[in-house]
Design a protein that fits this description.
This protein has 14 helices and nine strands. By secondary structure, it is an alpha/beta fold. The chain folds into two domains: 80 residues, AF1104-like (Up-down Bundle), CATH 1.20.1700.10; 243 residues, Rossmann fold (3-Layer(aba) Sandwich), CATH 3.40.50. The relative contact order is 0.16. One of its GO terms (molecular function) is metal ion binding.
Amino acid sequence: MESAGELVAFPLLTTPIESNYRTCTIPYRFPSDNPKKPTPTELSWIDLFLSSIPSFRKRAESDDTVPDAPARAEKFALRYAEILEDLKKDPESHGGPPDCILLCQLREQVLRELGFRDIFKKVKDEENAKAISLFEDVVRLNDAIEDVSKRVENLVRGIFAGNIFDLGSAKLAELFSKDGISFLASCQNLVPRPWVVDDLDAFIAKWSRKAWKKAVIFVDNSGADIILGILPFARELLHCGTQVVLAANDLPSINDVTYPELIEIVSKLKDDHGKLVGVDTSNLFIANSGNDLPVIDLTRISQELAYLASGADLVILEGMGRGIETNLYAQFECDSLKIGMVKHPEVAQFLGGRLYDCVFKYNEVLG
């Protein structure tokens, strides 16, 4: 389940031992909790993953790359549900106690054992094609905004709008299968500011000084998220003279974009001169993060990414999995931004916000 080669700690993470780095944001249990009894938080998250099984089963059934896909999808649903029920009885079974990382790992493990490598491949390809056709229009709309502050805010809103395309959320998967999701409508219908975590003004103030020489962005979903949200944002950083490293998953997980897919997407968007709608891409690098889940443990990333991240002065973790459910409180030796939309009621409750609220947590390292 891991990328080839030894995984290492992300070099810009404040020394894990010193900073007490904890991957998962939400405390699922405390030392005083009975190790043999699931906590209310653990139970609510197990139920959340149980509720997602029908949408995963539906995707698996239609995977025409796997022989006997419907029968195997049925086995996946039964086996994964059985594992989750086991965890309700004994939280230490299956490598517990459970948190969002373990619950994701177990789901991917069952899928892969049954021969399912990428059950969202078809919908990812379809959404990537749609988003690629819209990329230039979205970029030109952004370029037409002369005021830097307003342009950056518009780019940020584009990231949030794109981040809605998340088939790991049972509610959003159902909505998407019925109606699809319009990028421009999503931009207009974001919850109003102030968001549940809203450091946008401080971020824009720093941006206006063209302060960052190198940014590392941990990207999230395929489709509108990467193509209409992150890439226009990255293009603007490149235009400002910032070197940009995009870190994508090694292996497929939900509808997250993978390293090979991202290379293909960027190559399709570049013109014959290697530019993204007029902006030079010689300072754009794409890295394999070494990750295979929709969440990420920053003590386990690829050596390739560790090398490319050297000297970066801005780290961005995008998406609910990488930037909210994990790493929201992670500390770095440089400026950092955690940006994503809240798509689970459990996360909204923890943060004291609304469902589909926005998190924009910017930490500036002075000096």
